[in-house]
Amino acid sequence: MRGIVVRKINYNRSRQTGKKQPFNVRDHDSEYNRPTSPPAKFRFIDLFCGIGGFRIAFERASCECVFSCDWDKHAQETYKANFDEVPVGDIRAVASSEIPAHDILCAGFPCQPFSIAGVSKKNALGEAHGFDEKKQGNLFFELARIIRDRRPRAFLLENVKNLKNHDKGRTWQVIYKTLTEDLNYTVYHKIIDAQSVVPQHRERNMCWRN
Q: Which residues are catalytic?
């Protein structure tokens, strides 16, 4: 049956009593008796952190958050309630040297300048979108700055599915070229649908280096 694990138990007879006792491999295998030290935690930073989705996942994987950043005051309030930490505000005002050393950079950079709905709204209002949107559209380059200056071992970036199609694919070409050619990282990317954990199709473009 699903959900039930059946374990076979081997028995040894006790030399003193002659009774059967469960066999414990730790009593017989020196590999189990070697002293061990806890593994070192990977340190990560949580950029454009929102209310902490990335942080929950990485802390469940025994990683340690050493820096968080989001300028939305309501997101900051919720993040404080969740993690007892107020994220730093505008990433553009944070020097790379002020960010602690870390192994992994996590960032769900703003998607409105690239999403189908966001672009449609901006077109209707006669406003710029993509990298030309000055408030949010060019924040990817702040990530590139931090990656260049701090050189994390890995990163995980998240955005909408349409990021790859925006501006006939030219936006994605700039991002991919920046990460691979300018910053010299090997990059993998995949569209992942979160429908297995949320009650909707929520497709996101996940981009990582490991």
A: 111
